[in-house]
Amino acid sequence: MTECLFPSPTRPYELPWEQKTIWGVIFGAMLFIAISGNVIVLWIIVGHKSMRSITNYFLLNLSIADLLMSALNCIFNFIFMLNSDWPFGSLYCTINNFMANVTVSTSVFTLVAISFDRYIAIVYPLKRRASRRKVRMILLLVWLFSCMLAAPCLLYSATMTKTNRNHRGQLFLPYQNGFHDEINSV
């Protein structure tokens, strides 16, 4: 934790503490709004039985994916971008990449499901809507497909140590091989 708050002064591309503070305040405010807004959506839909509609199940799923992205990915990536170092280790590098891909694909697939649901409601207004059980099954499939799509991150995410002139630190790389190595080898 000390390395996150007080990084080594010999790092290249180090931002002055004033800029880090400004970015930290701006990012902290955005993160607070994202987390609190999604928690409010969760509380409203889960806590009030009258809000448990088909459309709100999709919105609940979007909110869960966004909350997971905010809590498990954004904070750590912000620290990495601020310090140009990944102090969280190889295990969390893998989890971080996996969760980022899962939550983004879950959001996209959920939006597709919402679009399809709205299409059916508009084109066939007299047709019976999907049941809650069917929507839960669709959302389960959304998470399953998202996890399958992000599975390579569990297998190939790693941290690499690159040595610069005055710096030795871990770089956060999505994949061990490929063009990402060339981009991050400064």
Automatic annotation (TrEMBL):
<keyword id="KW-0812">Transmembrane</keyword>
<feature type="transmembrane region" description="Helical">
    <location>
        <begin position="22"/>
        <end position="46"/>
    </location>
</feature>
<keyword id="KW-1003">Cell membrane</keyword>
<dbReference type="InterPro" id="IPR017452">
    <property type="entry name" value="GPCR_Rhodpsn_7TM"/>
</dbReference>
<feature type="transmembrane region" description="Helical">
    <location>
        <begin position="138"/>
        <end position="158"/>
    </location>
</feature>
<dbReference type="GO" id="GO:0005886">
    <property type="term" value="C:plasma membrane"/>
</dbReference>
<dbReference type="GO" id="GO:0004995">
    <property type="term" value="F:tachykinin receptor activity"/>
</dbReference>
<dbReference type="Pfam" id="PF00001">
    <property type="entry name" value="7tm_1"/>
</dbReference>
<feature type="transmembrane region" description="Helical">
    <location>
        <begin position="58"/>
        <end position="82"/>
    </location>
</feature>
<protein>
    <recommendedName>
        <fullName>G-protein coupled receptors family 1 profile domain-containing protein</fullName>
    </recommendedName>
</protein>
<keyword id="KW-0675">Receptor</keyword>
<keyword id="KW-0297">G-protein coupled receptor</keyword>
<keyword id="KW-0472">Membrane</keyword>
<dbReference type="InterPro" id="IPR001681">
    <property type="entry name" value="Neurokn_rcpt"/>
</dbReference>
<dbReference type="InterPro" id="IPR000276">
    <property type="entry name" value="GPCR_Rhodpsn"/>
</dbReference>
<comment type="similarity">
    <text>Belongs to the G-protein coupled receptor 1 family.</text>
</comment>
<keyword id="KW-0807">Transducer</keyword>
<keyword id="KW-1133">Transmembrane helix</keyword>
<feature type="domain" description="G-protein coupled receptors family 1 profile">
    <location>
        <begin position="37"/>
        <end position="186"/>
    </location>
</feature>
<feature type="transmembrane region" description="Helical">
    <location>
        <begin position="102"/>
        <end position="126"/>
    </location>
</feature>
